Amino acid sequence: MMGTSVGILGTGKYVPERRLTNKELEQMVETNEEWIVSRTGIRERRIAESSQATSDLAYEASIRALEAAGITADQLDLIVVATITPDMFFPSTACILQEKLGAKKAAAFDLSAACSGFIYGLANAAGFIATGMYRYVLVVGAECLSRITDYTDRNTCILFGDGAGAVVLGEVPEGRGFKSFKLGADGAGGDLLRICGGGSRVPSTEQSVTERRHFIEMNGRDVFKFAVRVMGSAAEEALAAAGIDKADIDLLIPHQANIRIIQSALERLDLPEEKAAINLDRYGNMSSASIPVALAEAVEEGRVSEGDRLVLVGFGGGLTWGASVLVW
Ligand code: COA
User: Fold this and answer.
1) Which of 140, 174, 208 is the last residue of a domain?
2) How far, in Å, CA of 160 to CA of 64, rounded?
3) Could you give the CA distance from residue 135 to residue 132 in angstroms, rounded to a whole number?
4) Integer Rg of the chain from CA
5) Is 118 among the domain residues?
6) How many structural domains are present in the chain?
7) What range does the domain containing 256 cover?
8) Where is the domain boundary, 174, 192, 215?
């Protein structure tokens, strides 16, 4: 794919303490535990304290990733934060994180690709390192989705949770690291999953608040169909670009939106469920944080060994999707 081999030097994750269970949701909207578990696979999610914003979650995940990589924050050349729940419009959450970490020489920017944001971020970071422009890049997926979730809407409020995952990218020995990236977008499906309020199209007004325009709107059925289609095809395209057969996948790290979507991707790739990192039962959908948190947990649990072939694949609002194949 590129001259320099670029890979992941360290991973880290953070999830808030507070759990929101299906039983609690039964008290909030017309739903039930059985429906949520059978239709989504989700049992509980984490919710940030009111004092915590996205950069606070990102910070906790980042210091763990830096420690695992064995580098200090002042060695970072770039910080990329993928998020749809920035602390504020600007400065970027990446700049706020840069200050918290004391990563004085790092450039910093946020990246907006919804649930595909972490994979988009990895592709960006790997490119900067492969060209020789930067040596160490921190890529973070961090979200406080509880702040943009409408807890009166049963179609969406059962799905989302808060959390952060981070990785440090740098040069790795030849033969290891990222083998391919496949990124895609289809703006025609933008209205299937979005927040309208607060932007330049629908600025924040009393009316926009009353009309609940600042929360996630979703057409669940159409997003589901799109997700099933694109998870399989993006993974297959990334495998083909990497020249790796699906039978040789050691671990699939999918976006965690719905267990049925993950199962359909596993079927298409002929993989048993043991070959997937799954955490949506505990955390729900954390958007850009889902994949890096699942990766960090797989590493913590000793499920990833040197030479293993990993496939990361996700989809989200935009519509967007992305997949990457890497050798650990
Ligand atoms: N509890 C109980 N019933 C619910 C419910 C809830 N929380 N949410 C929806 N329902 C009802 C619906 O109103 C519908 O009732 P109706 O048939 O009387 O209209 C019924 O359950 C079936 O709804 P449907 O939307 O067809 O369910 P589904 O099996 O498609 O599951 C999702 C809904 C949202 C779980 C599913 O579509 C999904 O996961 N979509 C993808 C969402 C996603 O990934 N979003 C993030 C992308 S990054």
Assistant:
1) 174
2) 24
3) 7
4) 19
5) yes
6) 2
7) 178-327
8) 174
Q: How far apart are CA 219 and CA 221, in angstroms?
A: 6
230 alpha carbon – ligand 1 mean position (Å): 19
- Ligand 1 site, CB within 6 A: 31, 35-36, 39-40, 115, 154-155, 158, 193, 218, 220-221, 223-224, 227, 257-258, 285, 316
Residue pLDDT, tens place only, 154-173 = 999 999 999 999 999 999 99
Check if the beta carbon of residue 118 is closer than 8 Å to that of residue 103.
Answer: no
- What's 132's DSSP letter? T
Kindly state the helix (H) or strand (E) to which residue 267 belongs, with its residue range: helix 259-268
**What pLDDT does 241 receive?**
98
Report the predicted TM-score, pTM, of the whole model to 2 decimal places: 0.97
pLDDT at position 92 is: 98
What is the structure's pLDDT at 160?
A: 98
Q: How far apart are CA 72 and CA 76, in angstroms?
A: 7
Active site residue 115: yes
Give SS3 for 325.
strand
Identify whether 1 is part of a domain: no
175 secondary structure, DSSP code: T
